[in-house]
Amino acid sequence: MTADAVYADPSALSRLYLNQPGSREMHLWRARIKGSLPVTHHGRTELVNAVSLTVFRGERTLEQAKQAWANIEADFEDGHLDQVDILWRAALNRAAELSRAHSPTVGTRALDVLHVACALELGLRHLLTFDDRQAKLAVAAGLKLVKL
What we know:
- By secondary structure, the chain is mostly helical.
- It folds into 2 domains: 6-83, 5'-nuclease (Rossmann fold), CATH 3.40.50; 88-124 and 132-142, no CATH class.
- 58% of the residues lie in helices and 9% in strands.
- The protein contains 7 helices and 5 strands.
- It has helices at 10-13, 23-32, 41-56, 62-77, 88-106, 110-121, 132-140, and strands spanning 6-8, 37-39, 81-83, 126-128, 144-145.
- The strands form 2 sheets. It has a 3-stranded parallel β-sheet with strand order 1-4-5. A two-stranded parallel sheet has the order 2-3.
- Strand 4, helix 7 (132-140) and strand 5 form a beta-alpha-beta unit.
- The radius of gyration is 15 Å and the shape is globular.
- The two termini are 13 Å apart.
């Protein structure tokens, strides 16, 4: 498996830029796997916002956040992350289908459903997440989970 076959959601990506449980494992996995991780515009926005929320919560300073944002941008420029285009109407339609079929039993939030839909619309077969409900949805939708 290469990175370009994996949809890493923001709960996973954020661990590359923020010190969180699972960050060490995420860094080790990323060091082993070749290629560029595909990230949608939506995923990129959520990643930037995850850093922003750490400032709001008092977990880091604005200067530390600026460094994390710079690291994110550097990873896009260096090709570690790849901003991918997606047909948003198709992704949103797929998300609605997944919600109807699985959210009543899995309890996934809309944005988590959207990430699974994006992975499917991009034709990816693997999902990396730290969100348990999203992981259950991904498996129900036919994706394979990346285990760290």
